[in-house]
Specification:
With 343 residues, the protein is α+β, with helices and mostly antiparallel strands. The protein has eleven helices and nine strands. The chain has two domains: 2-90; 109-338, Bira Bifunctional Protein, Domain 2 (BirA Bifunctional Protein, domain 2). A seven-stranded mixed beta sheet has the order 1-4-5-9-8-7-6, sandwiched between helices. Strands 2-3 form a two-stranded antiparallel sheet. It binds phenylalanine (PHE).
Length: 343
């Protein structure tokens, strides 16, 4: 019996050494150490032994059992180490390989100008508001004092989607949206940058372009507030020496309405090709919010007044950076785009 036990022990050791994975080891564990295994079945024989035999037999069995278990445990560890080594080898990287090159991106000039203008107005306590690019006729025109069939609609050849929806032709509908959201209670002090769309296309007009709308509604708002605000904006944007002037104009949603010019920054007002020898460059439209608009948008005109203005984003950029054609903003020519990367 002892001989057989030693044979089994030897065989077990060999098989454990040859085992290739944990699954095999588990099978061997059962084969040799489970209660019903051949080896363990010898335990039953102990009840027929006398005390002395039993003690020495028990010792042999225990040492064989422990040895097999230890071998299995050791092998498990070896297999685990091997697996780790294999994984490390597989996941190793060659740090001598050249890496991928990431080029640093930068803001498009359009966005850069939006940020610059926004910064100036945020500095004056304005908040930024946004409105939808697909707009209701109601907001784009009607609440801005341009009823259906009003000839002023011709000033903004528009892209209609259906009877009631269009690609907004100006950022001014945001004025109406913001006023309505305030339920007749001021103050309002916002700017709203965004895309606008008109059926236009030449060197200075694109079917898609950007505007920044400004709106202030409060008690005791005067035309001089508008003048002072725009003067500050122009000086920050185009230089401290710039002057502005206002010319009477017409917008259906402002009364009085003005067109604002800045003194030419190229020639300082003497006259050159940039300012078409007038010394002045047209820069934006503005005016006092029309009482009809205030009323339609829920404000009491006895208590509240307001001013509004609209600046063309590309127009500002073109003047500031000397760009000759508005289409350069959209054709994605990297030679153009990269010129403005320098901070
Ligand atoms: N929305 C006008 C336009 O696109 C500009 C403007 C805005 C004029 C606000 C006055 C007040 O032409």
């Amino acid at each position: 019996m002892i001989k057989r036990i030693q044979e089994i022990a030897q065989e077990a050791e060999q098989k454990i050494a040859e085992a290739k994975d944990n699954e095999e080891l588990s099978k061997l564990q059962i084969l040799y150490l489970a209660k019903k295994s051949e080896l363990m079945s010898f335990m039953a024989k102990m009840k027929d032994m006398n005390q002395e035999e039993r003690a020495s037999f028990g010792e042999v069995m225990n040492s064989v059992k422990n040895k097999i278990q230890t071998k299995i445990d050791e092998k498990r560890k070896v297999l685990k180490d091997l697996a780790m080594e294999h994984r490390l080898k597989k996941e190793a990287m060659d740090i001598t390989l050249p890496g991928e090159n990431y080029e640093r991106g930068a803001k498009h000039l359009f966005q850069k100008v939006v940020d610059e203008v926004s910064d100036i107005f945020i500095g004056m306590g304005y908040q930024i508001e946004e409105g939808p690019e697909v707009e209701l006729d109601h907001f784009n025109f009607e609440l801005l004092n341009v009823p259906k069939d009003h000839p002023a609609r011709d000033m903004q050849d528009s892209f209609y989607i259906d009877e009631t929806h269009l690609m907004r032709s100006q950022t001014s509908p945001v004025q109406a949206r913001v006023m309505l959201s305030k339920n007749g209670v001021g103050p309002i002090k916002i700017i709203s940058p965004g895309k606008t769309f008109r059926r236009d296309e030449d060197a200075t007009h694109s079917h898609q372009f950007g505007q920044i709308e400004g709106l202030v509604v409060d008690e005791n708002v005067r035309m001089s507030d508008l003048l002072g605000t725009l003067e500050l904006f122009v000086k920050k944007m185009f230089g401290e020496k710039r002057k502005i002037r206002m010319r009477p104009s017409y917008f259906p949603f402002t009364e009085p309405s003005v067109e604002v010019d800045i003194s030419c920054f190229e020639c300082g007002g003497k006259g050159c090709s940039l300012c078409k020898h007038s010394g002045w460059i047209e820069i934006l439209g503005a005016g006092m919010v029309h009482p009809n608009v205030l009323k339609m948008c829920g404000f009491d005109t006895k208590k509240y007044q307001g001013f509004a203005f609209g600046v063309g984003i590309e127009r500002v950029a073109m003047l500031r950076y000397g760009i000759d054609d508005i289409r350069r903003f959209y054709t994605n020519d990297m030679r153009f785009n990269k010129q403005f990367h320098r901070e």
